[in-house]
User: Which sequence fits this backbone?
């Protein structure tokens, strides 16, 4: 998801609103995850860097920890990232502060994929449930208690 920022770079204070969508695939400890993301972003030329703020919505295939069924998990998060021009940083024209997290871009093209990936992955919970009131699987007979009734639990 690469955006041209040639116009934005012309003047400090300029803003550009963009909409991005696409698939972001990632290898994680739990295997490969594919997230479909849609994002509305505002890019601002601050003079020092390009500030990227906005919202990201993501949808991914997930498995409910209670009933073990697959479902579509929807997540949302905010994004607020700084992009410095690599050339500025390497020749020390502009130096990000030491405790600042930032991304780099080259020339007049800014690749937002990695920033979107890092932010949306943090929004995905480790344990996902298909719905807040998922009844889960019966520990005794193994039936899905959302769709079947069993009498195992009635005595306790
Ligand atoms: Zn469930
Ligand atoms: Zn049961």
Assistant:
């Amino acid at each position: 998801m690469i955006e041209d920022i040639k116009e934005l770079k012309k003047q400090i204070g300029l803003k550009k609103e963009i909409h991005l969508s696409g698939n972001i695939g990632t290898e994680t400890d739990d295997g490969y995850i594919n997230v479909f993301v849609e994002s509305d972003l505002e890019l601002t030329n601050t003079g020092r860097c390009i500030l990227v703020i906005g919202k990201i919505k993501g949808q991914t295939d997930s498995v409910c920890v209670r009933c073990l069924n697959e479902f579509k998990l929807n997540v949302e998060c905010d994004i607020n990232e700084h992009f410095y021009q690599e050339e500025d940083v390497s020749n020390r024209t502009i130096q990000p502060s030491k405790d600042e997290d930032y991304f780099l871009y080259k020339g007049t093209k800014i690749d937002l994929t990695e920033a979107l990936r890092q932010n949306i992955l943090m929004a995905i919970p480790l344990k996902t449930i298909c719905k807040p009131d998922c009844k889960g699987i019966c520990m005794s007979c193994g039936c899905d208690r959302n769709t079947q009734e069993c009498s195992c639990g009635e005595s306790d």
Remarks:
- Helices lie at 86-90, 113-123.
- The CA atoms of residues 69 and 77 lie 25 Å apart.
- The radius of gyration is 22 Å.
- Residues 138, 140-141, 143, 150, 152 surround zinc ion (ligand 2) (CB under 6 Å).
